[in-house]
What we know:
- This protein is of the alpha/beta class.
- The chain has a single domain (3-268), classed as TIM Barrel, CATH 3.20.20.70.
- 38% of the residues lie in helices and 20% in strands.
- It has 11 helices and 12 strands.
- The longest helix is centred in the C-terminal third of the chain and has 18 residues, at 251-268.
Amino acid sequence: MRSIKVGKLNIGDGYPVFIIAEIGINHNGSLDIAKKLIECAKTAGCDAVKFQKRTPEICVPKDQWNVERDTPWGRMTYIDYRYKVEFTKDDYLQIDRYCKEKDIFWFASCWDDEAMDFMNQFNVPLFKTASASLTDLNLLTKHNQLNKPVIISTGMSTMEEIENAVAVFTHNNLLIAHATSSYPCPNEELNLKMISKLREKYPNIPIGYSGHETGLAPTWAAVSLGASFVERHITLDRAMWGSDQAASVEPNGFNRLVRNIRDIEIALGDGIKRVYPSEMSARTKLRRVK
């Protein structure tokens, strides 16, 4: 049985689907919005919220630093914008306290070594690498050295690139998320059968799904296909400013998402054929040949 313990929960076969509400940068640099999103995720029944952490001068190509763009704070250079949406240590201390009050996990996708070191000081129970980082074997190696659970996301990747990334991890701490890196993603490019393929290829690794579609049905289908964890972006309003908002789920949608995942888990059962007590009356009344 494939499973990994994360904090007080287990992720894997035989356990409830671990549900992640990805806040990412949908907070638009506002701690108040972040807290509202955390509260919405908790109310919906999510197990964790996830942020993204970058060191702008490392992650933003230098030829884009001074390119100006319109932002919620007015027109500014791209590098200044990237700093605007990065929370400080004091901000994350508040997030840490707030999540503990709400009894919900929080963690982050770390895009560079400095971001990893920054996040590790909060003793988060889980790390994630973005699809963009799947071929950054040095960053993956540093994640492996933490000897903490790590989700690798596999969007915009070949099978060979996935294999090379998995080979970096020497500890029993890896989880793999199937994903397609388009925002929002059309249904014909979701390729959910990859969940089954990854489960077959890596029988000892929990396989999950990171969805960027506009609806909820594909995420429910992913659970039916055996996803041990699912991740969807959460937003207060899909019309808000930001590149990820259109592929995100609003609070009411998240409530439905989680509620129906729990119903699907119950309905899937254990695959052992049996006659249920509720069938006995019909069996006695209608079964003509015994």
